[in-house]
Amino acid sequence: MEKPVEPYYEVFLSFRGSDTRNDIADYLYHSLTNVGIRAFRDDEQLHVGKEIGPELLQAIKQSKISIPIFSERYAESEWCLMELVQMVECKEKWGQEIMQIFYDVKPSEVRDQIASYGKAIRSHITKQLYTDETIQNWKAALNKVGSLKGWKLKQRGKGEFTKEVVQMLLIKLKKNSLAVSNCLVEMDNQVDKFMEVIGERTTETQIIGIHGMGGVGKTTLATIIYNKLSADFYNCCFLSNVRDTKIETLQDQLISKVLRTSCMSITNGNEGITEIKERLFSKTVLLVLDDVDQKTQLDALVGADECRFGRGSKVIITTRDKELLKGVDFQHELIKMDFKHSLKLFSKHAFRRDNPPAEYVPLSKKALKICDGLPLALKTIGSLLNGKERRIWEITLKKLETIPNGNVKSKLNISFEALESQEKEIFLDICCFFVGYDVRIVIHIWDSYKFSPEYSLEVLEQRSLIKIVEGNRLWVHDQLRDLGRDIVRERANLKPEKQSRVWNHEEAIAVLQMKEGTKNVEAICLTFDHQSRCFFKKEEFASLPNLRFLQVECGDLDMNNVRHFSFTNWFRRNLPTLLNLRWLSWSKFIQYFPSTNSFQRNLPILQNLKYISWHEFPIFFQFTAFSLVKLAILDLSRSKITYEWEGWNHLKMAKKLKVLNLTGCYNLHRTPNFSDHKNLEQLILKGCYKLVQVDKSIGKLKHLVLLNLEGCRELQTLPDEMEELKALTELRVGRTSITNFPEWKGMEKMETLSTTYCKLLSECNLASCSTSLLYLDLSETSISELPFGNFGSLVELNLSQSSLRELPDLIKTMKNLRVLRMSHTPLEKLPGALGLLEKLEEIHVDSCRNLCGEIPNEIERLSFLRILRLSSSRVSDIPKLPESMTDLYLEYNVNMRCPNLSNLLNLRVLTLESRYQTPSCLATSLDWIGGLTKLETLWLRYDNPITLPSDFNLLSKLGKLKLCVHQLECPPRLPQNLSYFVIYGGRLMDNAVINLSYLEKLSFFEVYNCVQVQGLEHLKNLKELRLSCLVSQAKLLDLTNSKKLRRIHIESCPKLVEVRGQLESLEDLTLFNCKSLEKMPNPLSFKYIKSLYIDECQKLEEIQGPEVSENLRVLCVGDLPLLEKLPDLTNAKELEGLKIRRCPRQVEIRGRLESLKRLEIWGCESLRQFSDPSSFKELEDLIIRGCERLEEILESDEYRDLKKARILTESRISRGWWAGSHGENVPY
């Protein structure tokens, strides 16, 4: 059977096999695939004939990024040259990126075809196997790619180099986002105010605080900001509920998420601080700390004095306590909702519409006054009144009016009191213990109640007291959680020993040790760590006869503190008293027990256990210790159990078992026999990556609703008996090695099917379950045809990165479809039947390179369509789009006519790209843009001349504008609320200039290859400025008024002579290739300066000042022929990196450099000494080259401390270190 061609790649590797196949190419290929990047590695067996075959051609065209590895003999291969020509064509036609590696050659050798490259080209000419035109194409491609910036590998460590390349690629390809409330009402103003300050795509490090009273919407705002920024960060982490989470757990989550590792098992806060400092100092991180209530939490995670993360990191803190935000870069107070938005939010919950019925307007206004603009109160009280008759409204509002404003909990308590007793108890359980738990698991602890817990949960959700969020997790607002816990305390007259639920560790220990617990105590939670010195002694639980919930977490318990303790005796004395125990959960607890058979045989039996959670279960311990007769849930995640484990026999007693979770049991190669577990509803085998066989007895599980096999990467087949799973509603088999789905006729209740990243899956028969499916994910598979069936219930269909070429007629049967994803497929046409899908909200067809013809006119009928993404296609025409559109991404091609989008009055985000100079788009007029008054973000990329409308400045909501244009005719006055403005490559007609003087809110400005910019001296709120390739820019750059500037990057501005201004807030400064620059304020004296990079400024004579800033961390200077000396650096007590290159007049490095870790000096032939070499106590890495006078004296005893550092070659100094957290990226 012919090997199927991968439908889509992210990276194409081109290399000369004999040079690099078993070297850097192999390093890179495996490193990319290991982190999930789909890379195509050229196989020389595909080299047949003189033309590129269809498989290679397709691989190059479908890749996002091409990486040619230029080695010494690369150009000897005509195949490598043909691939390179194809890459250049894809770059010019489709905008594909080329990121080349210069392996053992110089860029000039490739660009100019000299040395080995010239010899290779001459050899091809002599052989006369190819036409002159082909040879010229090869030379042109070498010249174009050789002129681009790229990585230089020569003499660098391959492991370090590969890591750097992979990280950059991950950043380019990565996306993150979190879900937000589906009843979001007009957070826009708050978001805009926030983004004006924080900016977007800024590269400065910022710590921002959001404060406000509980229930005002801080978490929602933080989530929206996180989603807006996350696309630009590779390292993202959202830590929720900080207030109620142990510091060690938070530190562990932070490190694990950023480094993408398993848990670090942090045992104490000081250890966590050290780990964060050492592991994350160079990482650029987006971090949200939600609901902080203590300064110690900030100190342990972010740092007491300064951010512990890399340059460009953003930390967002939400808190009710404004005092905690002292010292942050910016504080944002979240204000209450105004009347208009309050009414809309209240109406959504009270009436399920945007406005109240006329007869309820007076009562609604009364309710709004009571809620006082708090979103939580508006939602909760609105939900309470939903569906109630007018009399109940009047009674309830009368009660609420007696409660003073500001007493939010008392108002929310009205909703609690309106619940039935069972609903109250379930709500209190959730508030005390179950926030974040899977509702499908915990529901079993409530199944002894008179009414079904499902109904009670539905009531709680309808009343807006809880939410069931992504992953079926229970979520409660912190105000409501506190309300529930306060109710428990008040019921017990504030006496922990009389509480029904004890969740606080210290209170729980006190209750147990003093034996003051009463029959009221039903649930208790204990959390021990390495510092715990008090532990159980004797019959602590004897006074808790009604205990039904026991959770014990030990973390890394210090056995020196408990070595005298007999676990065996404690169990024997205490467990017989827990006759009503139903929920038993421990972590790393039983591993401290002795592994004797007598101990296990003599353990008492707990007759009522329904839940056992035992992560990292020790293989020696058997379940004979417990009765499993009533067991409903067993969680043995991350345990070392195998197929041969003896415990499977005892587990046969669990006839009522409903949930079996074996996540991450990596030693399990086949499942046990399931014949004795006919009541099983959930079977989770996620991440059992050695699993190769699922026992055929799975067919006997008639009640199974969830089967999760994600990440069982060795699993190739599923048993035929699975067709007997008639109750199955959710099947997840992503990232397995299955090749096809057999025709399972019995699965008629299937709602969710995910096969994502099953690269070998080419067939999928879904006829029997198609009518019930709601979510179908066939992304990243080899499926080329949509499975046959009637998908009338389908809500979301994901076909992205599959091999699908066409949508069949059956698409018209998907009447309930809301989201259609087909990105990166070989799809050739969109059918008119799409217009029949009346509920469709999103269509994603970006990077469908084979898509041609016209988008069907029927799409105008889709009155709910909000999002359309269309790029890298050959579509010739765009019809009129529906007015409901809010987000449009459209990339023109050579055949497409530019549409008029003036009817899209609800657009908020618009991206238009045209990378071709085409007759259909010449002198493109965009007059209609001025009418899109709701527009917030506008990105335009045109290779044709464009004209912006004269009323462009009236777009009052436009905050972000990016223009990548070949020619801009008569730039208009810009919208004055812009906070983010980028313009690339804009040649202005009639020598016009861009005037920024009136953009008072502008915080980020970047310009590249433009003519001239004016008005920079008026930008008082500017925080980041990037100027590149401004050939006509004025000689003087006056930044005197820009006192908030933190980051400046100026590159290739040949006429710039002077930079002026006292830049008090500046942290990072880069000046590169400004050949006329003579004067500038002394950056080393700026109080907050942390990194300074100055290179190729040949007329700059000095970098002096009265005193160097003590905050300076990195100093890099190079190619400064007139620079004779640097100032004394003694005061730079934080200086960790110093790089001096090609400064021929530099004689001495002055100062005590006690913190210096990395030192690089080369090409400084006059440099002969350090004023105090004995101060280099912390030096780790050293490179000195081309400094003959200095090298002569390095052997003396005076320089013995330098010899302790690693003596590295030029390339071994990590470019990632210089660039990561300490300043501007050096051009690579």
Automatic annotation (TrEMBL):
<dbReference type="InterPro" id="IPR027417">
    <property type="entry name" value="P-loop_NTPase"/>
</dbReference>
<dbReference type="Pfam" id="PF01582">
    <property type="entry name" value="TIR"/>
</dbReference>
<dbReference type="GO" id="GO:0006952">
    <property type="term" value="P:defense response"/>
</dbReference>
<dbReference type="InterPro" id="IPR058192">
    <property type="entry name" value="WHD_ROQ1-like"/>
</dbReference>
<keyword id="KW-0520">NAD</keyword>
<dbReference type="GO" id="GO:0043531">
    <property type="term" value="F:ADP binding"/>
</dbReference>
<dbReference type="InterPro" id="IPR044974">
    <property type="entry name" value="Disease_R_plants"/>
</dbReference>
<dbReference type="InterPro" id="IPR002182">
    <property type="entry name" value="NB-ARC"/>
</dbReference>
<dbReference type="InterPro" id="IPR000157">
    <property type="entry name" value="TIR_dom"/>
</dbReference>
<dbReference type="InterPro" id="IPR042197">
    <property type="entry name" value="Apaf_helical"/>
</dbReference>
<dbReference type="InterPro" id="IPR032675">
    <property type="entry name" value="LRR_dom_sf"/>
</dbReference>
<feature type="domain" description="TIR">
    <location>
        <begin position="7"/>
        <end position="169"/>
    </location>
</feature>
<keyword id="KW-0611">Plant defense</keyword>
<keyword id="KW-0677">Repeat</keyword>
<dbReference type="Pfam" id="PF00931">
    <property type="entry name" value="NB-ARC"/>
</dbReference>
<protein>
    <recommendedName>
        <fullName>TIR domain-containing protein</fullName>
    </recommendedName>
</protein>
<dbReference type="GO" id="GO:0007165">
    <property type="term" value="P:signal transduction"/>
</dbReference>
<dbReference type="Pfam" id="PF23282">
    <property type="entry name" value="WHD_ROQ1"/>
</dbReference>
<dbReference type="InterPro" id="IPR036390">
    <property type="entry name" value="WH_DNA-bd_sf"/>
</dbReference>
<keyword id="KW-0433">Leucine-rich repeat</keyword>
<dbReference type="InterPro" id="IPR035897">
    <property type="entry name" value="Toll_tir_struct_dom_sf"/>
</dbReference>
